[in-house]
Write a structure and sequence with these properties.
elongated; alpha/beta; 15 strands; 53% helix
């Protein structure tokens, strides 16, 4: 009772009753406290209670990128550490607005009217429909992936990498990062173009004195202003994403006002079209920068005078001056640039007007009289095409206006509920912008004159934005709106790109990028932002701005792989594929993927190839140098499905002789420390296989799995390390068995799967079998390996002196691989040298084939037949026939056989003596036990029964006397025995064949020899080992070959 009472006191070292772990005196880390679940308490370290598991899951916060690692870095700061708030951005602010702002960019305001004028309304609708369909299908696929689990930082990169693996994810993620960065340069250039062309032209720092210097001046201005704009945007992004969102609201408000101004202007054209006249000479459109009146002459105070337009086409202002012939032959007329919605101009703008570079912008239904030198037209103030136009080019130019659908998913780390926000926000944004683009195409074509639509830079309306001429109340609304639109889209690119790079860097799949995974304590990607700004700075901003076609390919590649990821996951039907978004289908994903691929190539096939090469290089780099990641991706699932399908096909029928190749089971030994004993055997495997076919490296440990689990894991790791070092592609299989014989038997029987099983066993020669007192080593070799491989119809390769075989780094010089073809067992002897010579180690070696002729054979005819056979087999080899005559058995052979049998007999005697000793000890124990029982139970027993009990001394005396007698008899028998005649003949064969082989092949790099079959009588197993030792004596590298009982080489094609 005292002990019980003491056990309840605190601090006595006895666990409390309510402790969940019986053997634990420290409850500090336990998440469970109670006695109701004591049955499960042994597993609570690895299997937590459901209550604590759900608690941890409920407390999960999708921290901003970089926040978690900074929490870990700040652990040493103690009370100074500030708690990182979990992200609180919703669908509207976090996804819808960023997507809307990125999609409604510079193309809408600067290029859409020109696309409508050039392609016509119908083809423009086809372009818009094609691109918007592509992004909508991608958004559907992305929604399915985004709702299939938590989407942390990284957005599109995270989705692709977790669905298709780190190689695809890293390659496409980095390309998408570059694409987003290049898009930022495009938006910054658009901002500067609007600023210097339409808002404050006088702000230009560099002004060209000559017309040919205008391009250089423009580029220099863009460099200066672009760098300043980039610096301001970078500072805003560096301060924090919430400030970007606040500015984004302002910018987006301006964009929406601009769009509303366009719709208001369209409505106003119904009853009061704006006055924007376009001056036409004949049917040609004129630039009106240098003249105010669309007249050749005018009357002022009854005096006819020439106008500014006259001076542009004539060599003087006089009425009799020499003028351009076309100017003389055609009248000047004025067209209403915006005739209005009900003017009927929509019928003229319905069809396309493509043309080459320098083609004049003309109105076909106006009268025109040709004349003059066409080569002089470039010096006249005509509006002309600045590029050659065609449908696929316009697709490439328009496509950037629908990109930006990933703007929300790229900021997934800042969203409160990414699974809900990404699908709704992205699809709503695409729907909204698609409606805006489609209605804009129709309304522009219905309101604006065709020649004005095709005037890309508004030269016919004094440099005004063409879309600005349509808006109400003023063109400045559009100018300001487009300016802020470009600013906002640039900010979104600078916000999304560094976060994408940070997510890639923190995954560690590209080692040299890991530094960019760091950032501020609130998760802002500082280093990634600096790299992005550095890429965009100074000269690069111009270069990347001109590579918008490459930008398209990067975006399209990302969209393609998002669709592919969704299609693969859907078709594989993996158990983890349970998206909450239900409105997807693999056919839609494949359609989206096909559209992405089509747009990539039809708009610019060479840029598509460049983008693919860049992505391919990144893929191979990650595969070669990147960290190995296992994310349960779809490519692995696809590989498993393909493997299962292939295995099922292989199971249907055995391989044809033409397809036969050695599928190896390599029996590799390890020492007591589980280190590989013969690594050269692994090297030889690589040289024989060259990475083709199946290779299983097996090992057997003696014991039980429960006690040898750690040794088994260590042995497996060491074997895999040896395989990796020797570049052996294959699998490792370590078996723990109660004895080595059973373990090897299990490997031979069960290694492999289905039709992908080994057909050849490779092992090292048991060189220490003579020195070992335990005969089990050579018994396992003969009884298990040789006999069981023969029974299983598998080939057997035994490498003698394997430690002297070449490594994969060695390069053997001129030499030979000698094949001794004694008996035909399927042709494996001739196939192996051919396979070895495919490897660079053996490439310079020549192949020689020796065959043995008996007295009755025609050796000359045998050589001819063998040469013809090798010719049909397409094997290059020297042929030699060796004659072996029936000589008398020499005294040496007789003596060697006698010594072999005497040794075998002595070992049997020794083994018998040990058995007898064990039997005698058991007899002592049994008889002593019986004597004690007799004395206790039968006191009145007769004297004769007592004499039957042996004493220890009497037993020892009797045993020694018998042993001396038996030993004398055994020794006399050993010296008087005569060798078995069968063994003498076999030894004679081994000796004579060894003499011939050593004479011919002692200097060969490798000798391949038929392996004789084991004796049918198991009593001769030890003699069999002696025969093989004699046969191989004096040879350095030998490979004994035993066929599997089927043909492995054929003369047929």
């Amino acid at each position: 009772m005292e002990h019980r009472g003491g056990s309840r006191q605190k601090g006595d070292g006895v666990p409390k009753e309510n402790s969940p772990f019986i053997n634990n005196t420290d409850d500090k880390g336990n998440s469970y406290d109670g006695t109701n679940m004591a049955l499960f308490e042994e597993e609570m370290d690895s299997n937590p209670m459901v209550s604590s598991f759900l608690s941890k899951l409920a407390n999960y916060t999708n921290l901003s990128q970089g926040a978690q690692e900074h929490e870990e870095a700040d652990d040493d700061e103690g009370p100074k550490k500030k708690a990182v708030k979990s992200p609180q951005m919703g669908t509207f602010m976090g996804v819808y607005l960023p997507c809307l702002q990125n999609i409604l960019g510079v193309i809408l305001f600067l290029r859409l009217t020109w696309i409508v004028g050039t392609a016509g309304i119908l083809e423009s609708l086809a372009i818009v429909g094609l691109c918007c369909s592509c992004t909508m299908l991608t958004a559907i696929s992305m929604s399915a992936i985004a709702t299939n689990g938590v989407v942390p930082a990284g957005g599109s990169y995270y989705m692709i990498s977790r669905s298709l693996g780190p190689e695809f994810g890293g390659a496409v993620g980095l390309c998408f990062y570059l694409g987003t960065t290049f898009a930022g340069s495009m938006y910054i250039l658009g901002t500067i173009e609007i600023l210097l062309t339409y808002m404050v032209p006088k702000a230009a720092i560099f002004v060209a004195d000559k017309k040919e210097d205008e391009l250089d001046a423009l580029l220099n201005n863009m460099r200066v202003y672009g760098t300043c704009c980039l610096a301001i945007m970078s500072v805003v992004v560096f301060v924090g994403v919430k400030y970007v969102n606040k500015l984004a609201l302002v910018f987006l408000a301006c964009v929406i006002l601009s769009i509303l101004a366009i719709y208001a202007g369209v409505i106003k054209t119904i009853f009061d079209p704006p006055y924007f006249p376009v001056c036409m000479l004949g049917n040609r459109t004129l630039k009106n920068h240098q003249f105010d009146k669309c007249n050749k002459i005018e009357v002022i105070d009854n005096i006819t005078v020439t106008t500014q337009l006259w001076n542009l086409f004539c060599d003087g202002s006089q009425l009799n001056a020499t003028c351009n012939e076309y100017f003389v032959n055609n009248n000047v007329t004025e067209l209403q640039g915006i005739p209005g919605l009900i003017s009927g101009v929509i019928s003229e703008n319905m069809w396309s007007t493509y043309g080459p570079l320098g083609m004049l912008v003309e109105k076909s239904n106006l009268p025109s009289v040709e004349g003059g030198d066409p080569t002089q037209d470039i010096y006249m103030p005509y509006v002309v095409n600045d590029i050659t136009t065609f449908f696929t080019l316009l697709v490439g130019i328009y496509f950037p206006s629908v990109t930006g659908i990933m703007a929300g998913s790229n900021r997934s780390g800042d969203l409160r509920d990414a699974q809900k926000s990404i699908p709704i926000g992205t699809i709503l944004a695409i729907t909204t912008t698609s409606i805006i683009y489609i209605t804009s195409v129709v309304l522009f074509g219905a309101c604006i004159e065709g020649v004005l639509l095709r005037d890309k830079f508004g030269d016919s309306v004094k440099g005004n934005l063409v879309i600005g001429t349509l808006s109400w109340p003023s063109p400045w609304v559009i100018v300001i709106g487009s300016f802020f639109s470009c600013c906002g889209a640039g900010l979104q690119s600078l916000t999304g790109a560094p976060r994408l790079l940070q997510a890639i860097a923190r995954d560690g799949i590209v080692p040299f990028l890991q530094v960019f995974g760091h950032g501020k304590a609130n998760g802002e990607p500082t280093w990634a932002l600096l790299l992005t700004a550095g890429i965009l700075s100074e000269r690069n901003i111009i270069t990347f701005g001109l590579l918008f076609s490459l930008l398209n390919r990067f975006f399209l590649m990302c969209y393609l792989f998002v669709n592919l990821a969704c299609a693969v996951q859907t078709l594989l039907r993996t158990p983890n594929w349970r998206p909450r978004f239900k409105y997807y289908h693999w056919a839609l994903s494949f359609l989206g993927m096909s559209l992405c691929l089509a747009i990539m190539f039809i708009s610019s096939w060479y840029y598509a190839i460049v983008a693919m090469v860049i992505a391919g290089c990144i893929y191979k780099y990650i595969e070669y140098r990147g960290a190995e990641k296992e994310w349960g991706d779809g490519i692995r699932g696809l590989s498993l499905n393909a493997a299962r399908y292939a295995l099922n096909r292989l199971e249907d029928a055995p391989p044809h002789t033409k397809n036969w190749r050695p599928q190896l089971l390599v029996l590799l030994n390890v020492d007591s420390d589980q280190a590989v004993k013969h690594p050269r055997l692994v090297s030889f495997t690589t040289q024989l296989k060259a990475g083709k076919g199946l290779t299983i490296v097996g090992n057997v440990l003696q014991g039980t799995y429960l006690t040898k689990e750690s040794e088994s894991k260590k042995a497996e790791q060491n074997i895999k390390a040896a395989m990796s070092a020797e570049r052996t592609k294959g699998f490792c299989h370590v078996v723990v068995s109660s004895n080595l014989r059973d373990g090897v038997s299990h490997l031979i029987q069960s290694a492999g799967l289905g039709g992908m099983k080994h057909n050849t066993v490779l092992m090292a020669w048991p060189g220490a079998w003579k020195q070992s007192n335990d005969p089990q080593s050579w018994r396992n070799f003969i009884g298990t390996t040789i006999r069981e491989t023969t029974a299983a119809h598998q080939a057997l390769l035994v490498a003698k002196n394997v430690d002297s075989f070449p490594t994969n780094q060695d390069r053997l010089g001129e030499g030979t691989i000698d094949v001794w073809w004694v008996v035909h067992d399927g042709g494996l002897l001739m196939l192996l040298p051919f396979l070895l010579r495919q490897h660079k180690v053996w490439r310079k070696c020549k192949m020689r084939i020796f065959t043995v002729a008996q007295m009755d054979d025609n050796s000359i005819q045998m050589k001819k037949d063998l040469q013809m056979f090798l010719y049909h087999l397409r094997l290059d080899a020297e042929v030699e026939v060796v004659e072996m005559h029936d000589n008398d058995i020499s005294a040496f052979t007789y003596e060697k056989t006698l010594v072999m049998e005497q040794r075998s007999q002595m070992l049997k005697q020794m083994h018998l003596s040990r058995t007898e000793r064990e039997r005698e000890a058991q007899l002592i124990h049994d008889r002593n036990t019986a004597s004690h029982a007799t004395i206790n139970d039968k006191v009145d027993a007769e004297p004769e029964q007592v004499h039957m009990t042996w004493t220890k001394d009497k037993l020892l005396t009797e045993r020694n006397r018998n042993r001396e007698c038996n030993a004398n008899v055994a020794v006399r028998d050993l010296f008087n025995m005569k060798p078995n005649q069968t063994n003498v003949r076999r030894m004679h064969t081994a000796v004579k064949l060894n003499e011939v082989v050593v004479n011919k092949s002692q200097g060969a790099h490798l000798v391949l020899l038929n392996m004789p079959g084991p004796p049918r009588n198991r009593g001769g197993d030890e003699n069999y080992m002696e025969f093989l030792e004699v046969l191989l004596e004096g040879l350095n590298r030998v490979l004994l070959v035993r066929g599997g009982g089927r043909e492995v080489i054929t003369i047929y094609s």
